[in-house]
Write a sequence for this structure.
């Protein structure tokens, strides 16, 4: 029950006017000429012009509607409550790898990661070693470049991958400012600000962790005087020690958030820039550090949301009332009971498993957010991708997005005067970007690299960045398997022991229908590291491709270590099922679940096995135990709902399926299951409405045929059933349903032909054989 394109399914392991050509050319020429100089203000009726309406983009790393809506319902987060009630809100749907530098740069540029080339927290240096990713590593223009090129003023605070500060028509405070706050002896970095002449003025606004009074921590944790002094002393420790102290980590994060808030507020005075972009990382950083802290975690994380809410509310009051505010996060964050096993503090790799692919997006006028009467009812912006934000922001400002930006302009996120304008695209707005410089002043700064390692942004012993590996994964996920293979082979050539690269390379090779080559790669990975997920993938591939002896050999040589025994049992279950031994397969799968009750691979395969045997209800017990362990896992809830539905209990299936869809709102499989529930409960109108919102598929067409049949709309039903057959080939049940619809439409001869096709697929259908005889009539053959 997996959606490859949604957040539902086992999480990744470590691994766009004109109709006439002249009109198009004419419009493009006008747009180009208009963009060659600052645009003159054009007053829209009843609205401020795009030239004079400022834009504020507030990025809140890791913010999630799941937490926001729960807190709003409890009377908390007043700014977010007004955003939900009066603004336009939607879900920001990101695609893995869910790494902050990648997504925030995609948001800022409107370009795909493989184009903008910010692919990791770190970059490899030509002479060896690594450095934190830099603005000069970005190969495409960002919004602050584009606005500046066209005479618009900008201010940027803390956006990721902005160091060294670029020359703009305005001000940039780079992301490196926050990473140096903890060191009071750090010398002023001349590349951290633009213009450099403002560094002293802006630096005076920074809040350092050591400056935080004990009372500043009270909303997060109650600290005794001794605990407070111990925390302050730990701030003087080496970074590797400092960040192991959760309270010191809290102090550094709180100082960074407060610094960015103070800088943002200062940069709207005395004249607000046309574009202000502010980044806050408190929600994400503290979620990682405290999500598993049973005593303090919930309080700390909720306070991080309150701080973000207060900053949003405050900025809405200090900017011009007509300002258009966009709020966005790069991803969401799974709750503690979602069944994520990886260490949330290991940000360089496994902890990204805690990143839900569903972030937030919202738009509202500042006056509405600052408690003045709302201009209109709320509006659902639907699903938005990171690629959509830059074109939308440019259009809101009266600037054309480039044709190289693949995202769309999201009408629901636009101010009224911008929504009324046609979207215009031009060939390119981007200035040429040169390769990164060979040397960077702080590339070899051991202190900075150590701090980033301590924060988890780079593995402590890593000798290479993850950029090319991430690019391989990105290309694989977009279906460019040959491109993925090229990148991943380059990684494995340089790093033969990189197990994650070998796994992604095996996936890319397997996707190109070269199973034997993929198996060889899996075997290399197993020889390097006997990880259970490697074994499961390898055995599954061998079983599907008739290489059972290879699978037996791999299992025989596999020596389970702590944490991998459930995967070994799962692998044995997969092999047994492929060899026609369902009892042994069931026993192995249940053994895996006895060791790890929420093991998704075992749960999914157990349900498939029992459903094929006509015993789906027998999987419910295991799924209920899994829900006890991971009550907020969309995958577990979806499987439980599916088992109950397959067992004939549509009423009981509705609740887990409904919650699964709340957790994974773009899951097509769960929506289809809920449509089946609604049909089983006689809610045909609800089922039709739900199905009409889903993309075309065989199952959707078949279910729409059921809805039409129940309404006696036989011609419509026949159309849907024919569409289902066209999408998936012969299926006896669909053939039978289509035959009945045609019979009811007066076309019994066609119906008989379809029933013959059905019986050819499965002769053991006595009722269908009787119906066929009846429809054929006397003398019918």
């Amino acid at each position: 029950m997996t959606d490859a394109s949604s957040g539902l399914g086992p999480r990744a392991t470590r691994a766009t006017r004109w109709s006439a050509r002249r009109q198009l050319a004419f419009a493009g020429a006008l747009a180009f000429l208009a963009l060659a100089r600052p645009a003159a203000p054009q007053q829209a009726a009843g609205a401020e012009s795009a030239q004079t309406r400022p834009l504020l983009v507030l990025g809140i790393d890791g913010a999630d509607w799941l937490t926001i809506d729960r807190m709003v319902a409890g009377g908390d987060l007043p700014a977010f409550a007004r955003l939900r009630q009066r603004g336009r809100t939607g879900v920001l749907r990101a695609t893995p790898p869910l790494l902050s530098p990648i997504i925030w740069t995609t948001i800022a540029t409107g370009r795909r990661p493989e184009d903008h080339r910010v692919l990791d927290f770190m970059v490899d240096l030509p002479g060896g070693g690594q450095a934190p990713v830099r603005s000069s590593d970005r190969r495409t223009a960002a919004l602050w470049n584009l606005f500046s090129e066209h005479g618009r003023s900008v201010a940027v605070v803390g956006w990721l991958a902005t160091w060294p500060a670029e020359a703009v028509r305005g001000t940039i405070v780079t992301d490196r400012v926050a990473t140096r706050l903890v060191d009071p002896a750090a010398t002023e970095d001349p590349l951290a600000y633009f213009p450099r002449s403002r560094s002293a003025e802006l630096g005076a606004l920074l809040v350092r962790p050591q400056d935080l009074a004990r009372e500043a921590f009270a909303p997060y944790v109650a600290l005794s005087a001794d605990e407070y002094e111990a925390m302050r002393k730990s701030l003087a420790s080496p970074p590797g020690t400092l960040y192991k102290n959760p309270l010191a980590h809290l102090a550094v994060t709180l100082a960074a958030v407060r610094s960015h808030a103070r800088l943002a507020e200062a940069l709207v005075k005395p004249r607000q820039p046309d574009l202000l972009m502010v980044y806050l990382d408190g929600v994400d950083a503290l979620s990682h550090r405290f999500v598993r802290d049973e005593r303090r975690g919930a309080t700390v994380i909720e306070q991080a949301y309150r701080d973000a809410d207060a900053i949003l509310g405050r900025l809405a009051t200090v900017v011009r009332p007509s300002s258009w505010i966009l709020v966005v996060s790069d991803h969401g964050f799974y709750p503690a009971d979602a069944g994520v096993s990886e260490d949330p503090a290991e940000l360089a790799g496994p902890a990204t498993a805690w990143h839900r692919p569903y972030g937030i997006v919202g738009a509202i006028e500042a006056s509405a957010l600052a408690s003045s009467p709302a201009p209109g009812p709320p509006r659902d912006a639907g699903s938005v991708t990171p690629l959509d934000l830059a074109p939308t922001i440019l259009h809101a400002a009266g600037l054309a997005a480039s044709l190289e930006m693949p995202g769309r302009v999201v009408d629901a996120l636009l101010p009224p005067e911008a929504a009324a304008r046609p979207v215009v695209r031009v060939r390119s707005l981007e200035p040429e970007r040169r390769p990164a410089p060979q040397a960077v002043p702080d590339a070899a700064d051991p202190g900075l690299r150590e701090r980033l390692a301590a924060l988890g942004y780079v593995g402590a012993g890593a000798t290479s960045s993850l950029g090319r590996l991430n690019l391989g994964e990105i290309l694989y996920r977009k279906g460019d398997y040959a491109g993925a293979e090229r990148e991943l082979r380059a990684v494995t050539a340089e790093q033969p022991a990189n197990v994650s690269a070998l796994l992604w390379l095996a996936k890319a090779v397997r996707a190109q229908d070269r199973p034997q080559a993929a198996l060889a790669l899996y075997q290399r990975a197993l020889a390097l590291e006997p990880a259970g997920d490697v074994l499961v993938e390898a055995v599954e591939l061998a079983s599907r491709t008739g290489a059972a002896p290879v699978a037996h050999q791999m299992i025989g040589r596999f020596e389970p270590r702590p944490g991998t025994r459930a995967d070994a049992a799962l692998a044995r279950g997969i092999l047994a099922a492929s060899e026609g031994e369902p009892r042994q397969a069931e026993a192995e799968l249940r053994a895996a679940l006895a060791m790890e009750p929420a093991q998704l691979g075992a749960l999914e395969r157990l349900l498939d096995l029992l459903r094929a045997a006509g015993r789906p209800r027998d999987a419910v017990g295991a799924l209920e135990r899994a829900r006890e362990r991971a009550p907020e896992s969309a995958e577990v809830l979806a499987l439980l709902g599916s088992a109950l539905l397959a067992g004939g209990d549509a009423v009981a299936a509705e609740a887990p399926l409904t919650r699964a869809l709340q957790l994974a709102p773009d899951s097509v499989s769960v929506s289809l299951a809920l449509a089946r529930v609604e049909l089983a409960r006689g809610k045909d109108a609800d089922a039709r409405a739900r199905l009409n919102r889903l993309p075309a598929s065989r199952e959707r067409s078949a279910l729409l045929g059921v809805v039409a049949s129940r309404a006696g709309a036989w011609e419509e039903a026949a159309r849907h059933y024919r569409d289902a057959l066209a999408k998936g080939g012969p299926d006896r049940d669909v053939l039978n349903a289509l035959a009945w619809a045609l019979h009811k439409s007066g076309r019994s001869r066609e119906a008989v032909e379809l029933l013959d096709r059905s019986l050819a697929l499965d002769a053991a259908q006595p009722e269908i054989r009787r119906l066929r005889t009846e429809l054929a009539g006397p003398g019918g053959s």
Summary: The longest strand covers residues 358-365. Residues 9-50, 435-439 have pLDDT under 50 and may be disordered. DSSP finds 36 helices and 15 strands in the chain. Residues 297-318 form the longest helix (22 residues).
